[in-house]
Design goal:
It is found in: Cell outer membrane. The chain is an alpha/beta fold. The protein contains ten helices and twelve strands. The chain has three domains: about 90 residues, Histidine-containing Protein, Chain: A (2-Layer Sandwich); about 120 residues, hypothetical protein tt1634 (3-Layer(aba) Sandwich); about 100 residues, OmpA-like domain (60s Ribosomal Protein L30, Chain: A), CATH 3.30.1330.60. About 35% of the residues are buried.
Length: about 375
């Protein structure tokens, strides 16, 4: 066979290779990936602090509410926005009053007062002598603040609710009372005779206040009220008059002038000479003993309950400063209690470096910021 014949008998195979360009993702996913990752990292880092701020706000609001209700025996335990109250109540009425106070507790925010507590649980240790009353209504709470009267609580039917609303609207008189916020609940269940009469007593008293809270809980009517001194005696007389149902509870009438005089005296004392502490400690320096004696006398002359506020400069970590300021406020509270001020009148709160009055860039400014202030707890707080 010739070379040509052999070559003709062969099959010719051709392999073609086609190069494909790899598909590329558009620019956006590559650009967004790092941004999303960074955002998640920031969220992961910030969330524990945000959660801590919420818890501290809820705890502070609960402590102040308990102090305002005279429930110094109750201890709040915080988890998120849930509060668990512990302690041994002197009576079932006192237990219910403490629960109601924390439910209504408010904290200051950039948008105004808000309720940081979403749920309140009862973990009280009750003495055998304390019996839970049966078939009692949950009661109501009427709060006047910043010209708004907020009505919360139980009404048996629409007729009673309308009667209460009518009485409230009849008292509208700007700027003291501008509007009514209705948050009443209709139970559609019969309530004890006299319940409506006591609710109308609540409207009659609280609408005479500049700021006030009237409540009926566990068969007990109570009111806290801040108003001009000239009107105090009249409101006290109305509040203490016999009622158709239950009994009279706490009646705390604070003359506006007395509140201003109290805070002015305390401010003058504490700005002229600071309560001194050992460095980075809550131990009060012995040199402040005479000043604490003077503060005690001023506090005794004050109306209502008082909040001892601790402040620091901005040196160090925020959480460390908050804890130090809280510990120092509690140390002052204990010092005043040891000097005879009732514990139920005092509450301690630490604000860390969040409320400076001087520059944290100078030694003098930082010294001004490390301070204790004492204020009357206002009815609407």
């Amino acid at each position: 066979m010739s070379y040509e014949e052999e070559n003709e008998g062969r099959l010719r195979r051709t392999r073609k290779v086609r190069r494909m360009q790899a598909e590329r993702l558009p620019f956006m996913p590559y650009a967004a990936g790092p941004i999303i990752a960074l955002g998640l990292l920031v969220l992961f880092a910030v969330w524990p602090f945000a959660s801590g701020v919420i818890e501290r706000s809820a705890e502070r609001a609960a402590i102040e509410a308990l102090a305002g209700a005279g429930a110094g025996w109750a201890r709040p335990r915080v988890s998120g926005q849930w509060i668990t109250l512990e302690g041994t109540p002197p009576s079932e009425e006192a237990a219910e009053s403490a629960l109601q106070a924390v439910r209504q507790a408010k904290a200051r925010t950039l948008l105004g007062p808000a309720r940081p507590v979403t749920r309140v649980r009862d973990r009280f240790t009750r003495n055998e002598a304390v019996e839970t009353p049966k078939d009692m209504p949950n009661g109501w709470s009427f709060r006047l603040a910043d010209g708004v009267l907020t009505l919360d609580g139980d009404m048996p039917d629409n007729d009673v609710r309308d009667e209460v609303l009518k009485a409230a609207r009849a008292e509208i008189a700007p700027p003291r009372l501008i509007s009514i916020r209705d948050s009443l609940t209709i139970t559609n269940e019969p309530l004890p005779e006299g319940y409506t009469s006591v609710a109308l007593r609540g409207i009659d008293t609280v609408t005479r206040c500049d700021r006030g809270v009237a409540s009926f809980s566990s068969n007990r009517f109570s009111i806290s009220c801040e108003l001009p001194g000239a009107d105090a005696a009249g409101v006290r007389e109305i509040a203490l008059a016999p009622i158709a149902l239950g009994e009279i509870g706490a009646v705390d009438i604070m003359a506006r002038e007395a509140v201003a005089s109290c805070e002015s005296s305390l401010s003058e004392l504490l700005s002229g000479a600071q309560i001194k502490f050992n460095s980075s400690s809550a131990a009060i320096d012995a040199s402040s003993s005479d000043l604490l004696d003077e503060v005690t006398e001023a506090v005794r002359a004050c109306p209502g309950n008082l909040r001892i506020e601790g402040h620091t400069d901005s040196t160090g970590l925020d959480e460390t400063n908050r804890r130090l300021s809280q510990a120092r406020a509690e140390a002052v509270r204990n010092a005043l209690i040891a000097r005879g001020v009732p514990a139920t009148r005092l509450v301690a709160a630490g604000y860390g470096a969040t409320r400076p009055i001087g520059s944290n860039q100078t030694a003098d400014g930082r010294a001004q910021n490390r301070r204790i202030e004492i204020r009357v707890i206002r009815v609407s707080e």
